[in-house]
């Protein structure tokens, strides 16, 4: 296998990509940044009543699985701050998902 270029590609970032984030090819900080940006974008669309980017939402839900699995690993190397960022992401996506579910139910009742 060709070895990965392990360095995070974000500008001015020299942090190694952790094995857990090989698929995203980002260091944890920039991965979380990207995830929060997507979360903010989808949240805004939802709040403005715009159509939700389904692909972005699916990606966010997949990140919840990733974060939960990663946090559950005993050998996980994240420090406290990194863990709380991941948790914040999990909660943010869960809240958004829940709000969307409620609003779909509300729409259902109006019909
Ligand atoms: Zn980075």
Can you walk through the features of this model?
63% of the residues lie in helices and 0% in strands. It is elongated and about 50 Å long. It is built from 3 helices and no strands. Helix 1 runs parallel beside helix 3 (80-110). The chain has 111 residues and is mainly alpha-helical. The protein has helices at 28-47, 54-72, 80-110. The chain has one domain. The termini are far apart. Zinc ion is lined by residues 8, 10, 13, 15, 26-27, 29-30. Residues 8, 10, 13, 15, 26-27, 29-30 line the site of zinc ion (ZN).
Could you give the topology of this structure?
Blueprint lengths: L27 H20 L6 H19 L7 H31 L1
Helix pairs in contact: 1-2, 1-3, 2-3
Bound molecules: zinc ion.
Rg over C-alpha atoms, rounded to the nearest angstrom: 16 Å
User: How many helical stretches?
Assistant: 3
- Count structural domains: 1
Q: Compounds present?
A: zinc ion
Please tell me the overall pLDDT: 89
Low-confidence stretches: none
- Indicate the overall shape: elongated
Key attributes of the depicted protein:
single chain; 111 residues; mainly alpha; 3 helices; 0% strand; binds zinc ion
Task: Quickly describe the structure.
The protein is mainly alpha-helical and 111 residues long. 63% of the residues lie in helices and 0% in strands. It is elongated.
């Amino acid at each position: 296998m060709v070895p990965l270029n392990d360095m995070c590609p974000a500008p001015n970032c020299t942090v190694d990509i952790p094995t857990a984030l090989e698929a995203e090819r980002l260091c944890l900080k920039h991965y979380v940044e990207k995830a929060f940006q997507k979360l903010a974008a989808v949240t805004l669309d939802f709040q403005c009543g715009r159509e939700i980017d389904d692909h972005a939402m699916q990606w966010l839900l997949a990140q919840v699985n990733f974060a939960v699995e990663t946090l559950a690993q005993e050998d996980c190397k994240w420090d406290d701050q990194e863990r709380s960022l991941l948790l914040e992401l999990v909660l943010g996506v869960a809240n958004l998902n829940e709000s969307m579910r409620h609003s779909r139910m509300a729409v259902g009742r109006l019909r």
